[in-house]
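A brief tutorial aside. Many learners find it easier to grasp structure tokens once they have seen a single protein encoded end to end. The record that follows does exactly this for RRM domain-containing protein. Read the sequence first, then the structure, and try to relate runs of similar tokens to stretches of the chain.
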Amino acid sequence: MIVHSSPYLCLFYPVTAGLQGTALGSDEEEIVLIVFVLIDPDSNKVVNVLQYVVKPRTADINENILSEQCLSEAKLTEAAVKAAEPLETVLAKFESYVRTFVQSGDRPRGMIFVTDGQLPLRQCLHPEACSKNIQLSEFYESFYDLRKEFSSFYHAAEEMHSIRAMVEYLGMLPNPDLEPIEFQAEDVRNMLNLVLRLIADGHKFNQLEVITVRLEPGICSKNEEVDSNCVVRARGLPWQSSDQDIAKFFRGLNVAKGGVALCLSPQGRRNGEALVRFVNQEHRDMAMKRHKHHINNRYIEVYKASGDDFVNVAGGSNNEAQAFLSKGGQVIIRMRGLPYDCTARQVLEFFDSGNNPCSVLDGEEGVLFVKKPDGRATGDAFVLFAQEDDATAALGKHRELIGTRYIELFRSTTAEVQQVLNRSMDPKTYEQQQPLIAQIPQVPLLPQHIITSGTRKDCIRLRGLLYEALVEHILEFLGEHAKNIVFQGVHMVYNAQGQPSGEAFIQMDSEQSAFLAAQQRHNRYMVFGKKQRYIEVFQCSGEDMNLVLTGGIPAQKVLTSPGAVLAPPYGAAAAFPYVQQAQAASLMPAGNAAPLTPRAAAPAAFGFPPIFYWPYPSPPVSPTSYYAGVPPPPPHQAAPTLVIMNGLPLSATQSDVLNFFHNFPEVRG
């Protein structure tokens, strides 16, 4: 009687519609072929060969989807791929086969995959299955890397980068026993021959690779040393992304415990960046190949980062935060907008009430209030939950009430807890800050109604401008086409730091004028002293221009600005820029410019005009001077207190605001 002690080995060989080999999975192309070969290591025989053609979700009946590399790698046709079954069906069929013939019967046995390197599972199957919300079976979470097993057993001096390299290293000849088998990818035959040779030579597969599919919590201290070869920076993330969402983007790669650190802006908001720490350099290098892969419709940029970068964001020295995070909760929820006198008991009751209650880990010990250095509350708190399933129930209470205040809830991370606690205890955080607009000197703003809209392509976009370029230099560059610029039609684009971005939009008097300007001035040189640079000129619509100039937010007709209305303190008015009409084409020179006027009328009782803050990128500008401001109030009159309201409906009017404060006689309209 034969005693089966070894699990089956199963070759896993995928082919995508795009790049193959060392670039497999780097282009996000979908799988179009999977070959499974089941091997009994005890008898060193092939048990079964299963080959599945897979239909991509993006397959178009009228377009070719297979690359030349794919066609040379596998015996596939466009028609066969388009008529095939989708990935989820193929995986379900194979799982059914495994349950029936491998894991059941008189002598059930396990099964472990063998792959040609790390890419087939880590960079190919796992990311695609995650993006398609396909739940993979547990046997996809471990495998043997044939290249590593080969190099270890045969003590190969050079690294094996392909199946062909391993075959040539051993000088192997074709195996006549495998000739009758028709493989749809010829490399599978060589791969199978290599595995059978290893078993025949006495090799025992023992270097098991494990794929971590869940991000585990962990704490990083300020004194911890992090290997710079293991860290990347991801940019362009959706602002609502959690650490688990970012780990899903890197699905298939092993992120270190607590290895996702969301970066916060100086205002404490997430800025769309994260630092990610992997278990080793091999995984970091694979992560770099996901540069410009997508989360939904957003492409994510991935760059190398240093260990110090990670520690600066994720590291903490706050003992209270360390004790809180060491409790081992799987889920951290950030609460914002709490009453200042809120207690831990009220937080527990908040989550334990309603139709879908959830329990906080360790009761009151699982609630951490964020406080200022003097002990006063900030209205923020972090709450721990034991299981991942608690996250949905907890976040379902978003905007429910404690007392009369609605509470905002967000999925948080260990790194965010560290950052927020570190900042809350830093006295500099609460020093009087200049309004953000003050950081952008000499950037007068154009009223919203001056920015055009519509789909007519009567605008041009200039890219690659010298940073020293002014409106007059643009007019000189356009030459005879400058006479076709409309009144107030030159719009420079500035970045969030108030520096020129190297771009400008020009409104022309017709689509024909825009077409001729783009055609005749594209890639021509702009000369500025000894500097010269060729400028890209594109024809575009007012709608295109409007989206860029307003930070991607479609203009609302009822608004005069896409930003919030702010007001400076007394005596600071001269430090803030105000609207000046852009000079273009036939406009008067700057020396004869009309006096500046505020962008909107200010309440007379307050005695100062409002300031408008625009999101990145900044609005069109033609900077020359400042608004002069108004004198402060008389000594016997107290300066008014400024209140900033967030979250107003877009249709809210001044009367609506005054009605909201009708019980406060101090508010003057």
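Self-check: The radius of gyration is 32 Å. If you spotted this yourself, you are ready for the next section.
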